[in-house]
Amino acid sequence: MLDTAQRETLAALADVLIPASDPMPSATAAGVPGALIDLVLGFRPDLAEPFASALAQCAGQEPEAALDALATGSPAQFQALTLLTSGAYFQSSQVKQAMAYDGPPQVVRDDIDTYVDLLTTVAERGFTIR
Prior knowledge:
Elements: H1 4-17, H2 32-43, H3 48-58, H4 63-73, H5 75-89, H6 93-99, H7 112-125
Helix pairs in contact: 1-3, 1-4, 2-5, 3-5, 4-5
């Protein structure tokens, strides 16, 4: 669970990583620093330590410069930060709505005719042992 200072740092960094662009909301507007980051940290608890380290290294710094320094000096922490931030962003209902994302296509399994044809062939062939 992040404290208020960590969430403020994340909000500043996340809006540099994912700024608003019509029709997409910024990371903060999508709710990344709130419950969404907690959600993805629940999915990837293995990234909690490098993520917290990234936030600590960037705290109190200008976001763009902090991200540049993190990317070059601490690539594992940068990767944790960017992966969790983007994962949280795409969990947002606002983002899904702006993308007009309806979810993965559902496989239709109503190919009964083919199945019946296969069974008919087996029934006509009769019982055989190979």
